[in-house]
Predict the structure.
Amino acid sequence: MKVLIPEEGWKKKAFTIIYRADTPAGKLFDISLLVAILLSTLLVIWESLPLLNIKYREFFFYSEAILAFFFTIEYYLRVISIRNKKAYVLSTFGIIDLLSIFSFFVSLLFPQIHFLIALRLLRLLRIFRILRLIPYMEETIYILKALQNSYRKILVFLLFVFIISVIIGSLMFIIEDGSDGFGSIPQSIYWAVVTITTVGYGDVAPSTSGGKFLAMILMLCGYGIIAVPTGIMVRETTRIRRSIKLCKRCGNNDNDGDARYCKRCGDKLITED
Amino acid sequence: MKVLIPEEGWKKKAFTIIYRADTPAGKLFDISLLVAILLSTLLVIWESLPLLNIKYREFFFYSEAILAFFFTIEYYLRVISIRNKKAYVLSTFGIIDLLSIFSFFVSLLFPQIHFLIALRLLRLLRIFRILRLIPYMEETIYILKALQNSYRKILVFLLFVFIISVIIGSLMFIIEDGSDGFGSIPQSIYWAVVTITTVGYGDVAPSTSGGKFLAMILMLCGYGIIAVPTGIMVRETTRIRRSIKLCKRCGNNDNDGDARYCKRCGDKLITED
Amino acid sequence: MKVLIPEEGWKKKAFTIIYRADTPAGKLFDISLLVAILLSTLLVIWESLPLLNIKYREFFFYSEAILAFFFTIEYYLRVISIRNKKAYVLSTFGIIDLLSIFSFFVSLLFPQIHFLIALRLLRLLRIFRILRLIPYMEETIYILKALQNSYRKILVFLLFVFIISVIIGSLMFIIEDGSDGFGSIPQSIYWAVVTITTVGYGDVAPSTSGGKFLAMILMLCGYGIIAVPTGIMVRETTRIRRSIKLCKRCGNNDNDGDARYCKRCGDKLITED
Amino acid sequence: MKVLIPEEGWKKKAFTIIYRADTPAGKLFDISLLVAILLSTLLVIWESLPLLNIKYREFFFYSEAILAFFFTIEYYLRVISIRNKKAYVLSTFGIIDLLSIFSFFVSLLFPQIHFLIALRLLRLLRIFRILRLIPYMEETIYILKALQNSYRKILVFLLFVFIISVIIGSLMFIIEDGSDGFGSIPQSIYWAVVTITTVGYGDVAPSTSGGKFLAMILMLCGYGIIAVPTGIMVRETTRIRRSIKLCKRCGNNDNDGDARYCKRCGDKLITED
C-alpha cells in the first residue's frame, strides 16, 4: 500500500482521507460516504413505488443529481490521489464505482432503459469496502477470504446441481407429460431447481403419482447434498488457520502458520516453505 | 458471583433461593417460576383465540393479574436480594423481567395497545435462565457461547445476503416489469429474501422466462452460500475447545490454550484463568 | 452379549438365527423378516387408497392376519430364546415389536380406531436393526452414535427456535391484525415455524408491509442459525474420533484415543485418563 | 493408465487426442466435444418448446442426426483406441456414452417413446469427464471423492428420513382424515417428504389444528437433522486430507498418514504409495 501513496502534499492528504479510516477526517469521510450510499439506494427504492414516483418526481431527480455529483467528485479524487491509477480503475470496487456513476448519466440520456437502475444499486456493495476499514470489522475480510478460497469448488458443485436439475427436469417433463407448469423442458428445469435447492415455491408442483415419486427423490437428494458446500467451506475455513510450523529445536510441529516463536520452547521459528 | 451475595440473613436466603438451584427451596422456586411463565404464555395465546376470548374474558383478566402480582414480587425480591442491583437491572434478563411485568400494567391503562402482548411473551426467554441453573443443561451455555462468539460474523454474512437480495430484487423488478407481486422494489426485495433463504412461500413467483432464469441463479446462490454461516459456526465451535491464551507482553490473544510461549514475541505465558 | 445366550440346544440355535447374521440360516431369517416388514408396510399403505380398499378388502385382511401371525411367532421366539428377557422386552426395539403386533390385534376388536395403523408402521424402524447386523453397514451405528451424543443439544436448540417462533409469531399476529391466516396466535406461531425452518408452504403469508419486513428478518434469522445444529453435530462427530493420547517416552501427544502404541516412536501407551 | 495405451501408430495418436488434454489437438477435441454436448442438450430443450417444435421440426431432426453421427464416431474411436476395451465399455462414462447414442437411434424407430429424450440428456454428465482433464479443475475430483466416501452414510441417513416421513405421513393421514391432499397414505408421505426436506411447496398443507401441530414438529425435526449429512461430509472431507496408513502386520487401516508405527500392534509402518 505504501508505494501507492502520492508524494505531493494535498494528494497525500486526500489519499489518507479517502483510503484510510484512522484519522478523524477519514472517519467523517467514510460515514458521509455510507450515508450517501444508503440515501442513493433509498432513492432508487422509493422511486419504484408508483405513488411516490408521481408525486415527488422532481425531488427524486434533483436528489439523485446531487448524489451523482458527489460520487463523481469522489471517484475523481480516488483516481487522482492514488499512485497506481490503473490498479484502482480496474479493481472490482473501481469498476463498481464507475458503473454506478455512469448509470446515472446514461439514464439522463436514455430514461427508458430501466436496466440502469440496478447498476446504481451495485453501489451497495461498496458498504463492504467501508466496513473493511473499520478495525473491529476484520470478520468481513475473513468471510471474503474463505469465500474466495472455496467459490470455485462451490461453483463446480452448483454446476453439478444444475446438471442434475436439467436431467431430472426433462425426465419430469416426460412423466408429467405437459401438465400444468411442465409444458416444456425449460419450465421443468425451473421446477427442478426450485425443488433441489429446497426453495419450493409451489407455483409448479407435480400432479401425477410418478411425478410425485420423482419429486420426492429429488427433494431427498437436495436435502442430502446440501452438505457438500458446507464440507468444502469448513475445509477451507480450517485451512486458513492451519498451515502448521515445525520448531527446529524442540520438534513441536503444532505451531500455527502465523507463529514467529515456538509455543512449546519459545525458540524463534524459521520459515522456509 | 460471590461478591454479589448480601450479608444480611433473610436477603442471603432469598438470594440462594432465587439465584441458585442447589437447594430444595431453590429447585421448588425454579419449577414454580417455570410453571408461571408457561401459564402466562398460554394465557396470552388463549386470549388471542376469538371464541375463547369472548367466553372467558374475566377469567383471563384475573389469572393474568395474579401472575403479574407474582412476577412483580419476584422482580422485587431479585432486586432487593442482590448486592449489585444496577448490574441485574441493566442485564439482558433484568430488562426482560421488567418489560414483561411493565407490559401488563400498561395494558391496564391502554388496553387498545396490542403491541404490549408481544412484550409479555418475551418472558419465555427466561426459560433459558432456568435451564441454565439445571446442572445437566450445560449444553445451553455452550450453544449461547458459540452463538455469542459468531453472531457478529453471521450478522455481516446476513447483511451480505440482504444486499444481494436488494440488488437481485431490483433487477427482478425491472425484468418482471410490474407483474403480479413485483410491483415495486421493496416487494421484489421481499421476494428475493424469500428465495435466497430457500423459504420459498410461492406467494410471489416469477412469471417471465427471464425472471425464472434469474430466480434459478438466486436459488442456487442461496443454496450454495448457506455453507458460509456453518463454516463460521464450526470454526467458532472448535475454537471454544481450544481456549486461547493472552500474552501479557505483546498483547497477542491468539495463542493456543496449550502454548507455553507467546507465538508472536516468544515471551513466557502465565496461566491464571 | 455372550451372557445372553441360552445354554439349552434349540434355544441356542434360535438365538443364533434370530439375533445374529453370520450363519446362512441367520441371513435367511433376516431377509425374510425384511420382506415381511416391507410387505406389512405396503399393505397398510395400499389399504389407505380408497379404490383398492373397497376392491381387495378381504385380501388385505387375510394377508395382514398371516403377517401378524408371523410377527407374533417371531416375537415369542425372540423372548424365549434370549436369557435376559426383561432387557429385550423393555428395550426400544422390544417395545416397537410388541406395539406393532399389538396394534393389529386391537384393530380386530376396535376397527374404528384409525390411530392403530400408524403404530403398525413403527415396524419400519426395525429395518435399522436388520441393517445393523449386516457387517458392511457399520455406518448406521456411527450415525446413531453421533445423533445420540448431540440430540440433547439439538433439542435445546430447537426449543430456542420454537420460543423465537412464539415471540415473532405473536408479534406478527399484532402486526397483521387478524388478516387471513393470522387469525390467532397459534396460527401465527404455525406460520413462524414454517418460516424460520425455511419450509415456507405459502398457505399463510404476510400481506402488510410491516408483516413482510418482519418475515424477512425471521427468514434471514432462520437461514443464519441453521448453522448451529451443524456446529454441534460436527463437534460431536469429530469428538468421537478424538480423545488424544500422550506418549510418555517421546512426548508425542497426537496419538488417537484408541491407539495402543505411539505412532511416532512405537512405544506402548499407558492409559490413565 | 499406461498399460491402456495401444502400441500401433494411429491408434496411439487417437488415444492421446481423445483421452488426454495436454496436446493442442487433445484440447481442441475436448472443446469441440463440449460444444457438441451443449448443442445436443440445447436441441433436446428447444424441441420441447411447443412453438419451436412445429416450426423447425426438420432443422431439429437433421441437427440431431449430425450430432448423433459425430458421437457415434467418437464412441467408436474411444473403443478402438483403448487397449482395455471392456473396462471402458463397462465404466460409468462408457455406459452413459452408449446410452445417449443408443437413445437417438431407437427414437428413430419408435418416435413415440418420449422417455428416450431423458437418456440423451445423460450426456450432460460427460461435462465432468472433460472438466476432469483441465488441470486447474482438480476440485471436481476432490468433490467426487468426498461424495464417493460418504454417499453410503448419506444414503442410510436419507433412508432414515424417508422412514420417518412414512410414519409421520401415515399419522397425518389419520389426523387430517382425508382432507384435501391427505386422501391416502402415499399422498401424505409425499407431503411429509416435502415438509421434512424443508422444500414446502404448499400444494398440500395441513388444515386442522392437530395436523398443524404435527407439521411443526416435523419441520423442526427436518431443520434440526439437516446437520447430520453435514457432520458426515465434514468428517469424510477432513479424513481425505489425513490419508490413512495400513499396517502390514495386524491389518489395522486406521493409522494416521503421519504415523511411523502402527498404533494397534506397534509394528513399523512401511510407506509405499
Remarks:
- The mean pLDDT of chain D is 80.
- Chain D touches chain C through 59 residues (CB under 8 Å).
- Residues 41 and 238 of chain D are 36 Å apart (CA to CA).
